[in-house]
Amino acid sequence: MKIIGVSGGKGGTGKSTVATALAYKLAQNNRVFLVDADVDCPNDHLFLGIKRKLRKKVEQRIPKWDYSKCKKCGLCSAVCKTNAIVSVKGQNPFFMPAQCNGCGACALVCPEKAISWDKKEIGKIYTGSKYDIDFLSGELKVNEPISEFIVNALNKIIDKKKTEYDYVIIDTAAGTHCPVIAALQICDMVLAVTEPTPLGAHDLGLILQLLKKISLKANIVLNRSDIGDEKLIEKLVHKYNTKIIAKIPYSKEMVKRHAQGEPIENEIIDKIIEKI
Ligand code: SF4
Ligand code: SF4
To answer: Is the CB of 80 under 6 A from ligand 2?
Structure first.
């Protein structure tokens, strides 16, 4: 069993294209589990025409107040690092659930034990299957700020199910922030999908730096390889001692297939599979 992360720093470089095409091709001869961990904007199900079914709601604990016990001391507000509690002298604390990360500090410091726990839904996890691919997808609720909670919930499911598969493919969010790190930390290797533009190179540099820090092997897939300056990417190949294992030129046909919810299948994807 191998867990492959498909990441790449910049958004819109074709991560989902590569992740879904890999899953489609690998599933012809292997047991494949595709996980869409781009929980702010999941789209793998659209690329493959998968109808998702709800598996579970993801909840987070939030504090609730018993105002009959509250002495309006303001300590809970003072300790809240996310400014989820506003305290005005002589008034009950005012709570903004959207800003709460459930850390628990407010309940710990309250001398009157006026704070207990409630729950709020922060997102959903869906399942599906098509083309012999088992599929899992997380989606953060609109206005919820902490997407790594959903990624952590996905990781727990992957951990339980991974031995049923030859390949687990995780399509991460763009960037190098917490939900990307949460998704990558369980991978055996990473495909960094990028494009030969200054922004593509900049963000690729950031993800390669991160992967080096967490000692994860990365190979580069250069998407839209014919639209920019490949030298920008080659500099990073040398700096981080990695390789470009495939180049995907811009193709109207690929764009059309995506728009129709059809998987991509070509010899470039075969080439990537040979290297993983
Ligand atoms: S710390 Fe407790 S007593 Fe003080 S304002 Fe908050 S809820 Fe009220
Ligand atoms: S649980 Fe943490 S983040 Fe939420 S309101 Fe309390 S102190 Fe603030």
So the answer is: yes
State pLDDT tens for residues 60-78.
999 999 999 999 999 999 9
Residue 207 has pLDDT above 80, yes or no: yes
Structure tokens at 105: 């500090």
Is 90 exceeded by the pLDDT of residue 86? yes
Co-location of 89 and 188 in the same domain: no
Tell me: do 148 and 255 sit in the same domain.
yes
Segments in 139-193 forming alpha helices (H)? 148-161, 178-184
Pairing relationship of beta strands 85-86 and 94-95 according to DSSP bridges? antiparallel
Average pLDDT, stretch 198-203? 92
200 and 88 co-located in one domain = no
Q: Are strands 32-37 and 85-86 parallel, antiparallel or unpaired?
A: unpaired
Give 239 Cα–ligand 2 centroid separation in angstroms.
Answer: 42
* Number of domains present in the structure of the chain: 2
Q: Is 190 in the pocket of ligand 1 (CB under 6 A)?
A: no
Query: Nearest bound ligand to CA 98?
Result: 2
For 48, 172, 220, the CA distances from 150, given in Å and listed in that order, are 22, 12, 27
Coil, helix or strand for 242? Answer: coil
Asked if residue 173 and residue 37 are part of one domain, the reply reads yes
pTM of the predicted structure, to 2 decimals: 0.88
At 141, which CATH number? 3.40.50.300
